[in-house]
Amino acid sequence: MFRLTLIIAALAFLTACPDLPADQHGTLQHIKDTAKMRVGLIENPPWVIRMAGEPAGAEVELIRRFASQMGVEPEWHWGGEANLMPALENYELDAVIGGLSDKTPWSTRVGVTRYYFSEKYDVGVPAGTKMESLSGKEVSVHDARTAGYVRQKRAVPVMVDSVQNSKDGPLAAPDWQIAQLGLARAGFDLHSDRHVIAVPPGENQLVKRLEEFLSSQYGEIPELLAAQPEVPR
Predict the structure, then answer these.
(1) How many structural domains is the chain composed of?
(2) What whole-number distance in Å separates Cα of residue 13 and Cα of residue 7?
(3) Backbone dihedral region of 127: left (phi > 0), alpha (psi from -120 to 50 degrees) or beta?
(4) Residue 57 within any structural domain of the chain
(5) Which one, 12, 15, 63, 95, has the greatest CB density within 10 A?
(6) Does 200 lie in the same domain as 188?
């Protein structure tokens, strides 16, 4: 009988609190009340791309879809981590995007979602090509960060303006881009990033809602990344 009473009490509590877990500062409710989601943008193609008009990028599109699902409009705020993250920490923004990884040092001061996409870097080569080692080989790269991964393998990075000029490989790039170019992975596992979206600290209900949305979009993310305009480096 006592056990039955506990179960009934627990069910009554959950029924009375349908929105658990709660936001400490009511961020999700504030978004609904104002019909706006304040989003900090850190430029980082193809995740966030600064354009002449509206921003572009895979995460920009994801936030647009999330906001649409919520029945609100995104309000964009450009900046760097040094000014956007403190604003997020102080609840002046509702999210910050920019290809952030789950290793961001800001995770001790702001909230982050569980990682929603794992981006692995490898070397792309034409199908059937075998590479036993990268040591001393010239490898095309599209940015300085990837060049660093290549140097760690004792290869020679060659900067290119467009990955489209490297369809014959070898090209160091994320897996989704290697597949987009019709290349095969050589199997060197240069680096991996587990991507997250930053949110204000303690806003558990917002995190839960955002994580559920991102999980529903998982299968579309490689195509979403491939569809973004290539920005010359």
Answers:
(1) 2
(2) 10
(3) beta
(4) yes
(5) 95
(6) no
User: What is the total residue count of the chain?
Assistant: 233
Enclosing domain of residue 63: 18-116+196-226
Handedness of CA 196, 41, 27, 63 (dihedral sign): negative
Q: Which amino acid is at 195?
A: H
Contact 211, 113 (CB under 8 A): yes
Q: Confirm whether pTM is higher than 0.90.
A: no
Q: How far is residue 205 CA from its own chain's centroid? A: 19
Is the alpha carbon torsion for 6, 7, 13, 14 positive or negative? positive
Query: What is the residue-averaged pLDDT of the chain?
Result: 91
Q: In this structure, are residues 71 and 50 in contact, taking their beta carbons and an 8 Å threshold? A: no
91 in any annotated domain: yes
The pairing of strands 117-125 and 191-195 is antiparallel
CATH number for the domain harbouring residue 158: 3.40.190.10
Do 123 and 169 touch, CB atoms closer than 8 A?
yes
